[in-house]
Each structure stands twice: as structure tokens, then as C-alpha cells.
Amino acid sequence: MKALRLLLLLAALWLAGIAIWIATVPEENDGASADVALVLGAAVDSDTPSPVFAARLDHAIALYKEGRVAKLMLTGGRSDEYSLSEAAAGREYAIARGVAADDILIDENSRTTRQNLLEAQRVMKGEGVETALVVSDPLHLRRAMQMAQSLGLEAQPSATPHTRYRSWQTKVPFLLREVYFVHHSWLFDQ
């Protein structure tokens, strides 16, 4: 019985440590620049970016307008219920906010964070683009950056300054989801 309690305590400490590690968000270089802002997809609502995706797009657009990136790399496929992919909806959103259509690269095939990064890497390589600022929610960046590094992407993190996950009621479920997916990524390289 003592061994089981010790095992449970160690597991709880491990999970708490991982949650704290995720919540501390990767360190950013505030003046960092790159060839693209690589925006990780986050769903659409009736063919328009969801509030979470819109926050990511707004941050990428700000990086573009500040001259910290030359282009946007938008990722995300299409679910069966919508006519536009996440990337296509994001493209329309960015163009409506002043981003030149020629400065937007898209991947419409990916459905997961790893796929977002793999497909973005493929598109970037085809366009001769080498460096990226990975744009996502703060709690998502640990996993996204680990994946980007494992794929050999020359990338730096750039967390959205405004996130939909502000209260404990929204942060805790998202953090628990990330704790699960970090372990899933480590175990299955997905």
C-alpha cells in the first residue's frame, strides 16, 4: 500500500511539474523577427476564424505591420461542417485587415499541431522561407515549440498577448489538455 501511495504521489508531482512547465511559457525575444509568422490553426465558426484563431491572427498581423515578419504562414484544414479551411478563413481575415494577399502562405491539409508544423515546413521550403515566429496561445507554445524543434524548423515562440483563456474556468481545462498532449507527443511523436 505504501508503494502505491508513493507511486501516486510521484505521478501527481510529475504531472504538476509538467503543468507548471507548460504554464511558464517559452521565453520570447521581444524584438525577434523572422521570414514568417507561422499561425497554428484553431477552428472556424461558420467560415470565420473562431475567437481563439482570431487572437492568433491578430497577433500575426501585428507582427507583420511592425515589420517583424515579411509574410504570414497560415495553417489548418477544413472540417466537414464548413466550406472554408481554417487557413482560407484566416487568409480572408488577414487580407481584410491590410495584409497583402501575396504575403500570405497557406496550408489547408493539416488538422493537428504536428501536421500544422509539418505542412507549414513543406510550404515554407517550397517558397524559400527559412525562419518563423510560431504564433499560438501561451499555454500551447511549449508543445508547439518542442514539435517545431524536433522537425528542425528554425523557429522562435511568439505568444498571443490576448488569449481567450483568461479565467481559471477556461485556463485549467486547456492546461490539462496540454499536459495530456505533451505526453502524447513524447510517447507517440505526434
Automatic annotation (TrEMBL):
Write one Pfam family the protein is assigned to: DUF218
Residue ranges constituting the DUF218 domain according to the UniProt record: 35-178
Question: What protein name does the entry list?
Answer: YdcF family protein
Q: Which organism is it from?
A: Qipengyuania polymorpha
